[in-house]
Write a structure and sequence with these properties.
2 copies of one chain form a homodimer. Chain A has 2 domains: about 170 residues, Dihydroxyacetone kinase, domain 1 (Rossmann fold, 3-Layer(aba) Sandwich); about 140 residues, Hypothetical Protein Tm841, Chain: A,domain 3 (2-Layer Sandwich). The first copy, chain A, is about 30% helix and about 25% strand. Chain A is built from 8 helices and 14 strands. In chain A, strands 1-2-4-3-5-6 form a 6-stranded mixed sheet, sandwiched between helices. The termini of chain A are far apart.
């Protein structure tokens, strides 16, 4: 196992200490239980957004804490759900009296623990709404998941709902916008290589030298098919076709296209993927009117990519364009 | 070779087409000869900054074209110098009458070709100043280089000098600031794995399963020593010690600390490196007052990192903080 770490047991804590040192203006890091909150939390009168999940997907979620996106993030151990006490502490820390939204990726552990935390918080008088993300079209049910997995659209939901919250909209509105993003968003991923969980010390799965896995999950869960590596043109056709067929996106649609790197993928390849994606969608009469290209929801050092599409209307476009200031995503301010 | 590409011959062109499609508001891409310019170029009366070098280091340089940073970038083939005709065309395209600065990383091919381009442009009445970056303390002379290599400080120079140009300062001033960044900046890199140049199809060098290379160059050039992998605490001590000793940075200094990923390194590891770096520098009485953490000057899918330090004064700090709006670096606007 080749990693820039000290003790595999302390990877999450060491990284959080780095985050705390790097971004004191944006985020405050609490150790034990681990959570990251906006440095100006709680923002009185604003709906607060809390997300979380296993670590190893950086910058998601901790890197999206700040103005216009998340109020708090709860990092679990690598690829392990955070605990209800982390979520409860984070929710209390950011509650500004207007209610709190939990953005929950659809993994059994995350769902269960966020539900428990929501109940604890409600018992203390905090209004909590949960929004589930289950955008991965690759497989129905998976390792760790009943139903579809939550993947790339999580990032886009956090940005768009975060903008709505920043505008002072009420809880039901912000939750409605978040749910709408999930309804009009779809994703699919693929891997060229596995990743290695530090505590495991060996690759999560094996792939042959000329193989790739289409439909991979962000923890290396099996996808749709394992096949010989092809030119990226064919990979994009396969992935974007599955994504576009699922909604279905149709001719005349405008979309936000998100080309995401899995952590070990160089940016030059992501731009090649994006070039192919625009061509593919053009063939279907779909216009890419906004885009995000980079490694934002990762799987440690896995090589590969995912494609997410969100069908845009004027409201979602305006919320996407709104200012955001976090360690991982920043514009307009 | 596992890459998200089509024909290895067309990697640079395909990626540039992706850049053109993704960022029409920021940058315009010219194909044949390849160069990327600010979408509002030439900016009349502003000193223009042009850089360039081999591709495979993305987002550098094309991702740094935009307001507050570069006016143009010339991408060569992967790890291959761009040609004088690219540099000449880019220089002419951005000349706004106040002169043009060529930011040149110290590699023999880059230096020679930029010198030729500068002469061609001067012959046509454009004032051109060249600024060399040679910040890598690892080795004196290297594959492709006489003297020290230009590495991470290039990114910081492009940002800082770009801000000075944006403020309307004259050519000699902006060039002076760029040279100052090189004078007070030092870097060193390391690799856990090699990278594979698409046209070569096999790894540039071999490293054992438990080995790392300290002092690696951004094209996989040999470094100072190949040794058994150690905890990151020791790696940072070795690299940051060499960097800090070289200037020398001294107690009471404030620095901009740049922890850079080589392309295949997950962000969680870079934050662990940053945590160690701050601790190391604190032990020497050096305060990290600004930071940049991420993969900004890469070596395709190489795993590893580099550390760059730039000694800050009030002027450099203010220029670093100034607004920038490029695909790869963006804040304040």
């Amino acid at each position: 196992m080749k990693k820039l770490i000290n003790d595999p047991e302390n990877v999450v804590r060491d990284a959080l200490q780095g985050v705390a040192l790097a971004h004191p203006d944006l985020a405050t890091v609490h150790i034990d239980p681990h959570y990251v909150v906006r440095s100006d939390a709680p923002v009185q009168g604003k709906v607060a957004l809390v997300s979380g999940g296993g670590s190893g997907h950086e910058p998601m979620h901790g890197g999206f804490v700040g103005m216009g996106m998340l109020d708090a993030a709860c990092p679990g151990e690598v690829f392990t759900s955070p605990t209800p006490d982390q979520m409860e502490a984070a929710t209390k820390a950011v509650d500004g009296g207007a209610g709190v939204i939990h953005i929950v990726k659809n993994y059994t552990g995350d769902v269960m623990n966020f539900e428990m935390a929501a109940e604890l918080c409600r018992a203390e008088g905090i209004e909590v709404e949960s929004v589930l993300v289950d955008d991965d079209v690759a497989v129905q049910d998976s390792l760790y998941t009943a139903g579809r997995r939550g993947v790339g659209v999580t990032v886009l939901m956090e940005k768009i709902a975060g903008a709505a919250a920043e505008q002072g909209r009420p809880l039901a509105d912000v939750a409605g916008i978040a749910r709408k993003v999930n309804e009009v968003g779809r994703s699919m991923g693929m891997a060229l290589t596995s990743c290695t969980v530090p505590a495991a010390g060996k690759p999560t799965f094996d792939l042959g030298d000329d193989e790739m896995e289409i439909g991979i999950g962000i923890h290396g869960e099996p996808g749709r098919e394992r096949m010989a590596l092809t030119p990226v043109h064919d990979i994009v056709e396969k992935m974007a076709g599955a994504v576009a067929d699922d909604l279905p996106f149709s001719s005349g649609d405008r979309v936000l296209a998100f080309v995401n790197g899995m952590g070990g993928t160089p940016l030059i390849e992501l731009y090649i993927v994006f070039n192919e994606l625009v061509g593919f969608l053009k063939g279907r009469g779909i216009e890419v009117s906004r885009n995000l290209i980079g490694s934002y929801i990762t799987s440690l050092e896995m090589q590969g990519c995912s494609i997410s599409l969100v069908k845009l209307d004027d409201e979602l476009t305006q919320l996407w364009d709104a200012p955001v200031k976090t360690p991982g995503l920043r514009w307009g301010i």
